[in-house]
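Q: Hand in one record:
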Amino acid sequence: MKKLYSLLFILCLTISSASATTWEKVNLENISATDTIIIVDETSGMALAQNGTSKAPTATNVISGTSVNSTLITENMLFNLGGNATDGYIFYGVGSTTNWLYVTNNNNGLRYGTNTNNRFKVYTSGTYSGLKANDGSADRAIGIYNSAEWRCYKTSTTLDNIKTTKICYYRAVNNAGGGEMISVESISLQSTANIIVGKSITLEVSFTPSNATNKNVTWESDDTSIATVTNGVVNGISEGTATITATSEDGNKTAECIVTVTPAPEGTTFKLVTDATTLNTGDRIIIVAAGSNFALGSKQNSNNRDAVAITKEENNITITDEDNVEIITLGGSVGKWTLNVSDGYLYAVNNNNHLKTIATANDASYWTISIEETKASIKNNSATAYYIMKNTSTALFSCYKGTQSDVQIYKEVTSTTDLPTLLTPTRSAIYTSNGTLFINTEAGSLIEVYNILGQKLVSKNAQSNENAIRGLKTGQILIVKTNNKVVKVKL
């Protein structure tokens, strides 16, 4: 059936008159599952033409003047859209639900078939605007390479290879019946929305009438220092309120949403452990994939644990309750550790790649921990040669015999290093206001400012009785030392 659908569509394109089938530019969030679309690089006018599992998609010019030339469209350029903005979009071959675009982890391959890494999210960086694979182990964006083919490149290291790419989408519109275009009368958005700094939400536009022909809109934020918006995806930048405006391409109709951005909840900081002898009973730790930004999650599945996304900052990770990372308390002792979680103890199942939770500790819940350089070995004492590892192809942690991704251990930071006892801050001495740190002390006195890890951020002599220090990251805990006094404040 899907092949018949595809053949009929191509037949329509090739035998119909130029007025029968046209292509309209459309925003990604306005594409429905039944729409037939093509993926085009706006910079070069080249469409993505998939070539199956063994060859990169061809870059083929389909733009004549300022519009799509239907006579240049071929079947392997046609796609249907699945998924969503939150979980990631899927680009199915037209009429198919079993083949899609996907990226490969070990090279710059963009392919079409049944492999994983098939979900994409909107991604922009510098001059690049397009799609990024929604998988931390892939971390690859797609685009035009050398004006010849479509590839994927790591966003962190090789994005320059496709930096001029600006992906846009065109939807097929069949006007063979001669029907008139249905104009937009009005549009609407939800009136308010709330997000926290560092998070995002997706706004959806409602059209009146609902069957309006042209549903393209542009987006704007009145204060990008507080919130930005790209194709309806609003990102919280800093605390405050911003108005997000959508404007229809047809008729310039507008709708607004007032977005309130609140500070991110104060998190718990964990530091990379490089020496197993520094681990002690009662330490709180998290288990993290060594080669990607995933941590062992708090959700226990039937035979494994979820892998949840985290952000590494050098050798530190800060998490909140919203991150759903499992904070493990070490029990037992060296050579016979227990991994105490919120609902019991982690244990391994012999002869199975299973990591489960049990209410009462037993022989299967004892572990030996060793660390070489930064990689941790968390070996079960009962299930022979089974280690806690991150699955290389799926977002989960379980027990394996050394064939999956290595892990690291991060331990909760509980105090600063080599600092005197903290005193209670008073507004008359040291305080913060609107992201600025104010320090009242004698002129000429040495001022030192540390973060919660004991890293020195500022060292200067006071210029006057009241000194203002700006440019520090808001939301963090600071330790201020001056005149033999040490005060802890939150910026």
Summary: DSSP finds one helix and 45 strands in the chain. Residues 436 and 470 are 5 Å apart (CA to CA). Confidence is low (pLDDT under 50) at residues 1-20, 416-428. The first strand starts at residue 21 and ends at 26.
